[in-house]
Amino acid sequence: MFKKGDLLVYKKDVCVVEEVKVKYIKDTDYYVLTPLTDKSLKIQIPVTSSAVRSLITKERVKELIKSIPSVEIIKTDSKTLENDYKELMQRGTHEDLIKIIKTSYLRNQERIDNNKKTTDKDNYYFNQAETHLYNEFSVVLNLSYEDTKEYIINEVNKIII
Questions:
Q1: How far, in Å, CA of 40 to CA of 53, rounded?
Q2: Which domain holds residue 47?
Q3: Residue 2 domain-assigned (yes or no)
Q4: Given this model, what pLDDT does residue 96 score?
Q5: How many CB atoms lie within 10 A of CB 157?
Q6: What CATH code is carried by the domain that includes residue 138?
Q7: Are residues 17 and 74 in the same domain?
Q8: Are both 127 and 49 inside the same structural domain?
Q9: What would the pLDDT profile of 65-121 be if each residue is shown by its tens digit?
């Protein structure tokens, strides 16, 4: 059980536990959470909710970063790609988010290289996945969002070069 002041992930948002309300509703304990990205929002969730988990560890972040070059991209046609993106976003594992980022990034790069415009679909899912992944990683690595992004790019470049 988390306590006041702890950081956790609720769905895909990093939150701080503002309070633990004991036997609050229907004799169930509840967390009162505030997402780090929106301090005006208060979320009440039963402590038994499966939507709450601990932050990833720093060691696991580093393992995931090292695995990025070997992450498979989504191999599908453009017609079903959005469904694949949606499914991966819904599952929302770190590996799924990395797969979305890598796939959409490479698809956009290919379009840019061919003097075409990037697609809204790829941009949307890229930004969503990046936000969820980097928000958690930045807290764990104790870096800003932008510094986390730069750190990951540098670490991946060290591996592939």
A1: 22
A2: 7-53
A3: no
A4: 96
A5: 10
A6: 1.20.58
A7: no
A8: no
A9: 999 999 999 988 778 999 999 999 999 899 999 999 999 999 999 999 999 999 999
